[in-house]
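dude i think i finally got it to work??
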Amino acid sequence: MKTFKEYLIESKKTYDFRIKIAGNLEAGVEKTMKTALEKFGVESYKKQGKSVVQEHPLDFPELKNEALNIFDTSLNYPINAEGLRDYLGDYLGINYTHLKVRKPNEPTEEYQAPKEGAYETRLTDAEYKDAPKIKGEEHYGDQYNMSMLKALMDADTGPKKDRTADPEGGKSDNPIEYKQEDAPEGGKSVMGNK
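look at this
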């Protein structure tokens, strides 16, 4: 049977983060940041690089013409991305608008990863290779309209006699003539004095 200490060692978990700082860094900021992260037990710390100057950096839409410094770190103690951003911003004296902390598997980070294989746009595909195979007769045309009407007639559960134009009491050869004198008001119009 394992001891508690062995279970604790096996359950060791690390918390990975990607830290992005916009703009040029002052001398010694990398070392100061590693010192700041020691509070959370740094497992690994590495500068991934510096991007080229971009008009609108990806994670910083409010900034213009800035380069990004990207760091990856793995910590032993739990903290969320917002808490780490606030802590690093205060410790390093960097404005929050120039500092982003993300988890490596966030959707905003995944779509930035390079894709494998050749990329082909779907707009240039005149054959529509990715489109599902559909038979047109099943969705429009005379055959479709007739099957739709048949289905509506089969689904109708109302009495069939309602569909006929026969008046109650059967058909009559003599059309009904309405006379003003037959009115209950004695021939006087309800609307006027005639």
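The longest strand covers residues 42-50.
im so relieved honestly
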